[in-house]
Write a structure and sequence with these properties.
By secondary structure, this protein is an all-beta fold. It has no helices and 30 strands. A six-stranded antiparallel sheet has the order 14-15-16-17-18-19, with no helix packed on it. A hairpin with a 5-residue loop joins β21 and β22. The relative contact order is 0.12. This is WD40 repeat domain-containing protein. InterPro entries: Apc4-like_WD40_dom, Quinoprotein_ADH-like_sf, WD40/YVTN_repeat-like_dom_sf, WD40_rpt.
Length: 329
């Protein structure tokens, strides 16, 4: 059984991350905690809504109810990236070339490394934001689909339409696929054809008993793990048409106990699976072998993150029950 270093916080954990080997835990109230030669706390927002890791420079980007986009470094120091008074910054994204994306209402914003900000009007409220892995291109999820913008040009966006509310968005690591979470119990995907004028092909991933609130790509982008069922649902993306016509893997099945968070290992085809009762399992794609990483605790697992060498897993729950699992322990 791996060893667990616990951290007991007061409230809902929005996100966790490792920066330069230091585990960070972000609470919904706006405080960011780190375990760096002791427990240290930085008050960053008045209400924190979203968090992503900017891997290019090992910092956190966060958006809050205070209308601020903040950058937090590994030593806990913070800097203001952007501000929109009286707005809620519910979506942030880290892009290539130092770009930072954020959204509120019906507008997507991209702040470039030179300080200039591009704005893109959307048809509906932005519910999810992600940058493509190559090229300065941003996707905004909204009601009835996704808008794709090339940040460096002023042309019309590409609209990927599919009826319903799209609540989150992610590109595959190779940029060939775009997948959204939906308000209904489903994922929806598009195969992004590089040929000019070609229409993106749809991919429907349905059958979930609950909403999908967590997804994670495997290290080489061949699999997409997701929550929303009593098992981690892992879709195959190896072929040219992604998961179409193929059944997903179902890993870590537990009767009537829902998976609430998934996080793929940075090097191996393994996924950490967090459940509504606070338990965490590790499962291998090749043979479905499972290992217990953490026994049940307080609150559903809301966030997980591996360190860069994949030997430690940080986690947080809806009740502030956090910690770091040492796999080697």
């Amino acid at each position: 059984m791996p060893t667990v270093a616990p951290l007991d916080l007061e409230g809902h954990v929005v996100g966790v991350a490792f920066l330069k080997g230091v585990p960070f835990f972000a609470e919904a109230i706006g405080a960011i905690h780190r375990l760096d030669l002791g427990h240290k706390t930085t008050e960053v927002h008045e209400g924190l809504l979203s968090l992503v890791v900017d891997e290019a420079n090992d910092t956190l980007l966060t958006g809050g109810e205070d209308g601020k986009v903040m950058r937090t470094a590994a030593d806990g120091t913070t800097a203001l990236v952007a501000e929109a008074p009286r707005k809620w910054i519910a979506q942030v994204a880290a892009g290539p070339q130092g770009a930072v994306g954020y959204a509120y209402g019906k507008t997507t914003h991209v702040k470039l490394a030179d300080g200039t900000t591009k704005e893109f009007a959307e048809q509906r409220t932005v519910e999810g934001l992600a940058f493509a892995p190559k090229g300065l291109r941003v996707a905004a999820a909204r009601y009835n689909g996704v808008s794709l913008h090339w940040v460096g040009t002023s042309g019309q966006p590409i609209d990927l339409e599919w009826k319903g509310a799209h609540t989150g968005v992610t590109f595959s690591p190779d940029g060939r696929f775009l997948v959204t979470t939906m308000q209904e119990n489903a994922l929806h995907g598009w195969k992004l054809d590089a040929k000019p004028g070609a229409e993106a092909r749809h991919m429907r991933m349905t059958g979930y008993p609950a909403k999908v609130k967590s997804f994670s790509w495997s290290a080489k982008g061949k699999w997409l793990a997701s929550s929303g069922a009593p098992a981690a649902i892992v879709w195959p993306f190896q072929g040219k048409d992604g998961p179409m016509g193929k059944a997903p893997l179902e890993l870590g099945t537990r009767a009537d106990i829902m998976v609430t968070s998934v996080c793929c290992h940075p090097a191996e085809d393994i996924v950490a699976i967090g459940y509504q009762d606070g338990m965490i399992l590790g499962a291998r794609f090749a043979d479905s072998k499972e290992v217990l990483l953490r026994r049940p605790g307080k609150g559903a697992i809301t966030a997980m993150a591996w360190n860069k060498d994949g030997r430690q897993l940080a986690f947080g729950s809806a009740e502030g029950d956090c910690g770091v699992v040492d796999i080697a322990g």
